[in-house]
Design brief:
Layout lengths: L1 H22 L7 H17 L1 H12 L5 H35 L8 H69 L3 H20 L5 E3 H19 L3 E7 L7 E3 L4 H12 L6 E9 L2 H4 L3 E9 L12 H14 L4 E8 L2 E9 L5
Parallel strand pairs: 2-4
Antiparallel strand pairs: 1-3, 4-5, 5-7, 6-7
Helix pairs in contact: 1-2, 2-4, 3-4, 3-5, 4-5, 5-6, 5-10, 6-7, 7-8
Length: 350
């Protein structure tokens, strides 16, 4: 507010000097007197800002008697404008006295005229300030509503994953019951651990890499019971990214795709490789981490790569959280290896 007052004062001082030059007045331009006079007028509004803001809040109140509220705000505006001009006029008289040694009469004709005309100018200035407060408050509420809308959309996307994940896991367990009941029991126990983790983090949009990785390990241990020696998992995790923040349950759909399209159809042992490292500068141009989940494949690409619920959901959540500050792609890097890759800002703050 002080900086804005100084900038406005500077603008009007330059305007006054330009006006003096254009009209070629026969008296010298007093930089000190004009600068102090204008600065006092606008910097005084900085002091009176709490009262101006109070009028703004009164104007925003939704009461039944809106006409009464408006009248009270107008009356308060007139009084505040009068107080502003009264203080400014006396302060200008004091500046004039220090320069000339002559103190104008407080109730003199010139002062009363200046006070009347000046109060009207102060009233206009006050309503400009109120309008600015209203605009800033509207923008603040708009941004808040936008954030709430995005948060609701992200929560909805996150909730879509839970029944999808639960259905697929239960399907795996039901398929195992007829084959090996003991393994099915172990899978149910492991699923209980996964569901407890889901419930504990149900409303959290973000988690740490360490917690997300632990969830993925529990999920893969459950799937390894089903696929036994058919699945091998390798981890390449940098210790420095473990505290970094990452969207909750963002990796599970990618790992699930790796199992569905890489491990399940394989005739021999398949491999899933999960790497989370601090990224190179070429990707995002700022400190970030890279997540790479790749799986061996017998060369058959998914029927509709990148269009399933899992990959669509991942991309929508990343767009909602990071706007354009992320990278996400999934493709075959060799005829026999498919990879999903995410680059995210490296954020370690809670």
């Amino acid at each position: 507010m002080v900086l804005a007052g100084l900038l406005i004062s500077l603008f009007f001082v330059i305007k006054a000097y330009a006006d003096h030059l254009i009209n070629q007045y026969n008296y010298p331009f007093s930089w000190l007197l004009i600068t102090l006079k204008i600065s006092i007028n606008y910097l005084l509004w900085v002091v009176l800002t709490p009262w101006a803001y109070s009028l703004t809040k009164q104007l925003q109140k939704r009461k039944k008697n809106t006409v009464f509220t408006l009248l009270m705000v107008l009356l308060g505006s007139v009084l505040l404008a009068f107080v502003h001009q009264l203080i400014a006029t006396r302060a200008n008289d004091l500046v004039y006295f220090l320069e000339s040694g002559y103190m104008k009469a407080f109730l003199g004709h010139n002062n009363l005229v200046a006070l009347s005309i000046g109060s009207f100018s102060s009233f206009i200035e006050l309503w400009v300030i109120i309008a600015l407060f209203l605009a800033l408050d509207y923008q603040k509420r708009y941004l808040h509503n936008q954030k709430e809308l995005i948060a609701a959309q992200l929560t909805s996307l996150q909730m879509q994953l839970h029944p999808h994940f639960l259905f697929n896991t239960l399907h795996s367990i039901s398929a195992m019951i007829d084959i090996d009941s003991r393994k099915a029991q172990r899978m149910l126990t492991k699923m209980g651990t996964l569901m407890r983790t889901l419930l504990e983090n149900d409303v959290e949009q973000m988690t740490t890499v360490e917690k997300e990785l632990q969830f993925i390990k529990d999920y893969l241990e459950l799937e390894q019971i089903r696929y036994a020696d058919k699945m091998r998992v390798q981890y390449d995790i940098s210790q420095e990214v473990l505290p970094a923040r990452i969207p909750n349950m963002i990796l599970q759909p990618l790992v699930e795709n790796a199992i569905k399209y890489g491990i399940a159809p394989a005739m021999e042992q398949g491999e899933i490789h999960i790497a989370i490292q601090k990224g190179s500068k070429q990707a995002l141009g700022s400190p970030h981490m890279e997540v790479k989940i790749s799986n061996s494949s017998e060369g058959a690409a998914p029927n509709t790569p990148g269009t399933g619920l899992g990959l669509k959901n991942v991309k929508k959540r990343l767009q909602g959280l990071y706007k354009d500050e992320f990278l996400f792609e999934s493709r075959f890097i060799t005829p026999n290896r498919y990879m999903a890759q995410i680059a995210l800002p490296l954020n370690t703050r809670p």
